[in-house]
Amino acid sequence: MHDVILHHYPTSPFAEKARLMLGFKQLSWRSVQIPPVMPKPDLTALTGGYRRTPVLQIGADVYCDTALMARRLEAEKATPALFPEGLEFVAATLAQWADSVLFLHAVSLVFQPESMALRFAQVPKEFVEVFSKDRAALFSSGSVSRVPLEQAKNHWPVLMARLQQQLSRSGGEFLLGDAPCIADLSVAHCLWFLKATPVTAPLVEDYPEVAAWLGKVLGVGHGAWSELSAEDALKVAREAEPAALPDEAFSDPNGFQVGQRVSIAAVDYGTDPVEGELVFAGVEELILRREDERAGVVHVHFPRIGYRIEAR
């Protein structure tokens, strides 16, 4: 058995989602701190170029995108369930809405000048400039752009009213019933992001039902974790072998074949492509085999939804 390793940094909202998933599953894990901006040479040695945060590593298998990480952790430990029986589609769909629509609105609100001035009040000016350029590059290609601030402010009461309505009618304390699931964790990380400064915290606190629910979700914690160096994480990958491929037929509607050289990239933002040998194409997941002099032979896993695959 290999340790579960999370490559992340503390202020990343999607990293908070991953930390909450690990806490929800009551898992022990290793924490590798990565830079919040490029370059990230230790991370990309594992991923082949994927730069988004976080990344999950188990031995020589590397998982990109929290949507796929959730499914991997569900396979690691079935209960408590991130995808409750009978509500799998609803939970995944609500999570996808949160990770896209709600998240992009939260980004716009957090990145307004008054909020950023507080977030970076104690940060050197040079880093603020680097960070701004890095985030501009992150959104410079792909299918989405930032939501204009005025639009985000206009939409926000609608989004929160819908969350309040769902909470009032779910039949339990959480979005889909008596227990939290992937839907709750996906919404929660966006609101956690907003609570970081007094400028944006009222956008959550002004909705008491939502604020109370958020406190319960964040209460699942982060599980038990210990620090690991990036070099040691690379050593783990180098000394391990990728896990056996899923017991599922290879199937690709665009005709890609096992062993074909391809690239896979996100379509929305952070669209840096990862090249490798396609070894698996399943209903939810694509897997590339790649080799790196520091990481050795690794399998890099991507979800189908939100990613494109191209022949090289």
UniProtKB/TrEMBL annotation:
<dbReference type="Pfam" id="PF13417">
    <property type="entry name" value="GST_N_3"/>
</dbReference>
<dbReference type="InterPro" id="IPR004045">
    <property type="entry name" value="Glutathione_S-Trfase_N"/>
</dbReference>
<dbReference type="Pfam" id="PF13410">
    <property type="entry name" value="GST_C_2"/>
</dbReference>
<dbReference type="InterPro" id="IPR036249">
    <property type="entry name" value="Thioredoxin-like_sf"/>
</dbReference>
<dbReference type="InterPro" id="IPR036282">
    <property type="entry name" value="Glutathione-S-Trfase_C_sf"/>
</dbReference>
<feature type="domain" description="GST N-terminal">
    <location>
        <begin position="6"/>
        <end position="79"/>
    </location>
</feature>
<protein>
    <submittedName>
        <fullName>Glutathione S-transferase family protein</fullName>
    </submittedName>
</protein>
